[in-house]
Amino acid sequence: MLLIIPTAVTPLWSTMLGFSLLPAVVMIAGAALAVWRAPGPKLRSAILHFAAGVIFSVVAVELLPDIVQHHAPYEVTLGFGLGVATMLGLRYFTQRLEKKEETGEAGNAKAESGGSTAPAGAATLPWGLLVAIGIDILIDGLLLGIGFAAGAKEGTLLAIALTIELLSLGLATAIELRQDGHGKRRAVAIVAGTSLMLLVGAGIGTTVLRGATGNMLEIVLSFGLAALLFLVTEELLTEAHEETETPLLTLAFFVGFLLFLILGMVA
Fold it and tell me: Quick one: which of 189, 144, 148 has its CA closest to 20?
């Protein structure tokens, strides 16, 4: 069965830009908050749990029913498989970058201990980390475009969910940059630069998906489904569990899920 989406569902560029700016601005605000007063590990873990619950709710309540009701198993299998393969490939690529970065830092530290001196204040950029974050944000932008391809409500809820995720990402990135010796303003500026990848991803997603219908849209939605599930299980919850688990932290996941379940019902 072909899936036909009315053209009115496709958001205008101005609408997509507005919903893309929200997570980007919140990510920058999170970085500013981190350099001003970094949140404790438990609070960050709670934010990650909450974000995971929110995104899982959007997947289960909004995207999954749209995919299932059109009974296109071959397209779903193809899209889902491509999504999993893409996310695993990106993880492998970014882990190699981060490992190379750590090796380089270890070599620099060894050289300094041997008598070499680095210029004062010459904190080098952690390119491995920044490239990994940039790719992550680019994928988030693409997922936002996929969400709007499913419908205005799905896109709006996903934009809010990604806003919460990027708040946590902005906090973590700024803290990492500060620990590497970068100044407060520079740390926030770097985060602001990487947040632009969300607009790039959303723009690509909107352009590619404009007018997409039928089996192609089923493939795209299934790709987004796999990518979002990967984001929840392999990134958000993995990072959240770095802090000792408590009933309150676990509760944050279910609060996020329930909140967007109810919001999806009344919106």
Answer: 144
